[in-house]
Amino acid sequence: MAKRSDAAGLARQILDMNAFSASARPAGSHTLLDRRLANVGAAAVLFYSEPLEIVSASGSWVTAADGKRYLDFYNNVPSVGHCHPRVVAAISEQIGSLNINSRYLSGVVDQYLEALKATFPASLSNVVLSCSGSEANDLALRIAAAFTGGTGVIVTENAYHGNTSIVADISPSGWKKAHQLPHVVTIPAPADAGTYQSLEDSFAADVRAAIAELDRRGHKLSAFICDSIFSSDGVYADPPGFLRRAVEEVHAAGGLYIADEVQPGFARTGDAFWGFARHKVTPDIVTMGKPMGNGFPMAGLVTRPDLLERYCRDTGYFSTFGANPVAAAAGTAVLNVIEEEQLQANARIRGEQLMQRLSGLASKGGEVVGVRSAGLFIGIEMSDADFASRVINGLKDREVLIGAAGRFGNVLKMRPPLSLSADEADMFVDRLTDVLAA
Ligand SMILES: Cc1ncc(COP(=O)(O)O)c(C=O)c1O
Prior knowledge:
The protein is an alpha/beta fold. The protein is about 35% helix and about 15% strand. A hairpin with a 4-residue loop joins β2 and β3. The structure holds pyridoxal-5'-phosphate.
């Protein structure tokens, strides 16, 4: 397998990155924080050692209870801009006339399904809508198992795919302690070619080795699932095409390739509407969520009819809220806004603008290791997680929100709204430069 350096520190769990810790709670009275901790208990997950109370948002900006406005480079859910008026209007109008479970005919729903399908290769002609990316991945894994008769799953070593029981089992970045499951084999993120000619070759070799390992453990391959931008692994986008041979290996072994587009999908990568399209591969199943309704909770998958038919032969599938008309109205508005405001092109142009300045970025102590991106999905690798954390908090002090990713929590993760303006992009780099120089 391709080698990787562990020099950046100890592996981190995704929810621990940039998280509030009760043991380091700020002094003084924090009524809302106390209430949250009392209400949610051990499952409470909050950003920052001093969590923010956000009260409203618009475009690329969120406003906190104390009146401060933060430039939001973290939230990829309100992808066409916070509270986009077209999406708000579509949701309001639809909920004012009808919202009902998915077992009735609805022109609003089928209009959406058709518009969504038009963004995919023609072979992916069946859509199942759900309410979360986790549910979509759960169903994708079950479809793959039914179709292939296999149980083995290959994932990258810091992947996150969601929170249902079977999906948590294939989400190493969510594991708090060693979690050896015989049917799950992890492979390194596509960070470097190691001793191979190309990243495409080394990643394919890792997948081939994982298939052999599953075989050794008595598990036939069911699926290789990866987030097409490797977000929680630390953002690995280039060179486009490096997934191709890995997918061929999966198919040759009788497995399916599931493209998890929950993070990179819906035009964020700029040069394509879907992350997998940058790699010129056609998945067997694509899952999506987060930006799909610009904050309205909706998700889903697209797949080939033969795969879905095989699954539904043995198991019924129904979701009460999955394909409700309000979700369809929100989803339609999002697709329309992306097209009419040319947000895919904007993601590419603003991404290039950011990269021009970010690629020359340096810190006083030389802690900036590298910058990786596709469109408005950007990762900046730092020498270690402590420095990354200092930058994240320094940016918060300068009213900018970003996050962390990577196996060691040492990668700054940026995903601003696709509607980002040139001034906002410059403002971000100015403030980041200021933090790095401090
Ligand atoms: C790549 C990826 N897949 C799936 C999920 C799960 O989506 P959800 O939180 O909507 O269940 C996430 C959530 O962070 C994700 O990042």
